[in-house]
């Protein structure tokens, strides 16, 4: 079932979100200081491409640098990427078939706003990283 949902997701919104995150990652990797943010964007891009069967968990070892990095991320790229999820989620919720995909878009907003200090893990092992 996850594969079917992922294929439909890929066609409806996943590919475009993937491209948006990759573009943000490329722009952020231009400077040396932006490389950690670019890597986070690429990590989320794969999650946006194939989200069903994965979830995000908080990393307990992430400290103050993640907090500062999340504030910078929010200003530099997070706000625009989250706005893309909101617009796409609303557009998908117009049809009955698109409602689960719209909800999945809304569930991706927190990681698009504050990605540092979070880890993407398979849903069958959400506590394996701890």
Give a quick summary of the entry.
The protein has helices at 2-28, 35-49, 64-92, 99-107, 109-113, and strands spanning 54-58, 118-122. It is mainly alpha-helical and 130 residues long.
- Helix and strand sequence: HHEHHHE
- Distance between the ends: 27 Å
Strand order of the largest sheet: 1-2
- What characterizes the major β-sheet? 2 strands, antiparallel
Helix content percent band: 55-70%
**Share of β-strand residues:** 5-15%
Instruction: Write down the oligomeric state.
Output: single chain
Structural notes for this entry:
There is one protein chain. With 130 residues, the chain is mainly α. Helices cover 65% and strands 8% of the residues. Helix 1 crosses helix 3. The radius of gyration is 14 Å and the shape is globular.
Keywords for this entry:
single chain; 130 residues; mainly alpha; two-stranded antiparallel ribbon; 5 helices; 2 strands; 65% helix
Map the helices and strands.
Layout (H helix, E strand, L loop, with lengths): L1 H27 L6 H15 L4 E5 L5 H29 L6 H9 L1 H5 L4 E5 L8
Antiparallel strand pairs: 1-2
């Amino acid at each position: 079932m996850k594969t079917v949902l992922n294929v439909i997701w890929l066609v409806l919104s996943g590919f475009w979100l993937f491209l948006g995150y990759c573009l943000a990652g490329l722009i952020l990797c231009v400077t040396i200081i932006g490389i950690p943010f670019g890597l986070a964007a690429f990590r989320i891009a794969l999650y946006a491409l194939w989200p069903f069967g994965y979830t995000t968990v908080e990393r307990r070892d992430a400290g103050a640098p993640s907090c500062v990095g999340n504030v910078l991320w929010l200003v530099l790229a997070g706000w625009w990427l989250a706005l893309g999820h909101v617009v796409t989620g609303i557009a998908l919720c117009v049809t009955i078939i698109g409602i689960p995909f719209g909800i999945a878009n809304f569930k991706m907003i927190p990681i698009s706003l504050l990605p540092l200090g979070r880890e993407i893990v398979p849903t069958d092992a959400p506590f394996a990283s701890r």
